[in-house]
Amino acid sequence: MSIPLLARARQHGDRLAIVDAAGEHSYAEVGAAAWRVASHILNGRDDLREARVAFMVPPGFDYVAVQWGVWLAGGVAVPLCLSHPLPEIEYVLDDTAAEILIVHPDFEAKLRPATAGRDLRFVSTPDALAADEAPLPEIEETRRAMILYTSGTTSRPKGVVTTHRNIEAQITSLIEAWAWRADDRILHVLPLHHTHGIINVLSCALWAGAACEMLHAFDAETVWQRFVESPLTLFMAVPTIYVRLIQAWEGAGEAEQQKRSEACEKMRLMVSGSAALPVSVLARWCEISGHTLLERYGMTEIGMALSNPLHGERRPGTVGQPLPGVDLRLVDENGSLIYEEEAPGQVQVRGPAVFLEYWQRPDATQEAFTDDGWFRTGDVALVEDGYYRLLGRSSVDIIKTGGEKVSALEIEEVLRKHPHVAECAVVGVPDAEWGERVCAAIVCRTDEGLDTETLRVWAKDHLAPFKVPTRCLFVADLPRNVMGKVTKPEVKELFADRS
After folding, report:
1. Quick one: what percent of the chain has pLDDT higher than 70?
2. Does residue 385 share a domain with residue 256?
3. Which structural domain range is residue 303 located in?
4. Could you tell me which of 346, 343, 341 has the C-alpha nearest to residue 330?
């Protein structure tokens, strides 16, 4: 076995690896379970030779055993989203041409229909975990290891293929930058079909010999309880989770608030990523927890590329500087390098963590890379006094209006400063006069709503530094129950319907 992550796990032996609803599990126990899973899915073969193995398993010991078992057998792991409807699952099964589907009993009824008409071996996790051990193949680091699917905001989701060497590079970069150590203990509340949950939290913890406490799903009160009761040192989440935790803290009694804040202060690091973190959320969380959240930037194709420092200034609204092993540059629309600060450019990344290919999409893979091997992220950023600040996706967040290019993320940050705005999403919608109209969907802090004309008047002054022609600013007031549930494509459709 030459899979770096699994080889390191052997060295950790009886150290605590996973804590879940079933109890505590050592590294040795996870490794042994993974061997049994690998033996079962090999089913007499000597090597799966990169056969795709899809699996739907809830967070915990079983998930890790299955993922590692797929790798030990020589397969390519394809983790499925627990909440996706069957048609989306079937799309992934067909796109990857998966040969094996491993399913936890909780999801057997949901996924059994997916085997109809497909040459697909259905495996139940209890059967795999109870198998006898068999000889395992030797796995090279250059082999394909995992396929994760992009969000597919502009087209059908694409499978992002990473090798074992890519995964090692992604992990070791964060181990160095965030000083992971064996006595760390992290609470895991993120989905396990994305890089954030799989690499940043789970794999980094298990590489370091740390303990990973895994919840089946996020619940604000349960997380606060774990903060108080468990000896945690790390926590990583998305901005929406921090918003929910703030709301739960504010709804607690004074004594409970103090207890929760003291629990946070005992941790050494809290990280936010996967979406832009509103400065107001960062500030409020700092007041509650004593932590200035460490913001970072990455994506499925590259792992993490930029990070604010572990030790040093963490600047609100920025994503820091390149991580160890990452080469990063900004280029203009003609592909020329940008050297000056505060000049927006498209982010390009190169390094050992960058993915191998889009699964079965050679044209898309070729288009994603420059001739000299830099990956085109599709994001736009600028440098301010040595720190990178993201302006958003060039296809979604950069709005061309009235002859100016403006950042939807910057406009959203301004609008959130209005005392009655709880959440917002800004998009550009085609317009004959302006090129694109700047459209903002607003969720108010109360059920009373907000007069949109009043907001437009307020925004005129506050958005002036960002060159936003407020004459083409359109506002829609959305109900509070959609908070955190509306995507930008849906907002675009909302305003297109109103045009």
Report:
1. 90
2. yes
3. 206-352+370-392
4. 346
pTM over 0.90: no
Residues 309 and 259 grouped into a single domain: yes
Cβ–Cβ under 8 Å, residues 343 and 331: no
- In angstroms, rounded to a whole number, what is the distance separating the alpha carbons of residues 306 and 321? 5
The reply to whether 273 and 407 lie within a common domain is no
185-218: per-residue pLDDT in tens?
999 999 999 999 999 999 999 999 999 999 999 9
Considering the domain architecture, whether residues 126 and 8 belong to the same structural domain is answered as: yes
Is 430 within a domain?
A: yes
Same domain, 385 and 424: no
Task: Supply the CATH number for residue 84's domain.
Answer: 3.40.50.980
Counting runs of H as helices and runs of E as strands, what totals does the chain give? 17, 25
Question: Mind listing the pLDDT tens digit for each residue in 121-180?
Answer: 999 999 999 999 999 999 999 999 999 998 655 568 899 999 999 999 999 999 999 999
The pLDDT tens digits for 16-68 are 999 999 999 999 999 999 999 999 999 999 999 999 999 999 999 999 999 99
Q: Tens digit of pLDDT for each residue in 133-147?
A: 999 999 999 999 999
In a domain, 168, yes or no: no
In sequence order, the 6+-apart residues with CB closer than 8 A to the CB of 447 are 480
Specify whether 416 is located in the same domain as 385.
no
User: DSSP of 225-249, one letter per residue?
Assistant: HHHHHS---EEEE-HHHHHHHHHHH
Q: Contact 58/46 with Cβ under 8 angstroms?
A: no
The single residue listed with the structure tokens 């057998």 is 73
What's the CA gap between 70 and 6, in Å, rounded? 12
End-to-end Cα, the chain, rounded Å: 60
- List all residues 6 or more positions away from 409 whose beta carbon is below 8 Å from its beta carbon: 276, 390, 391, 392, 397, 426
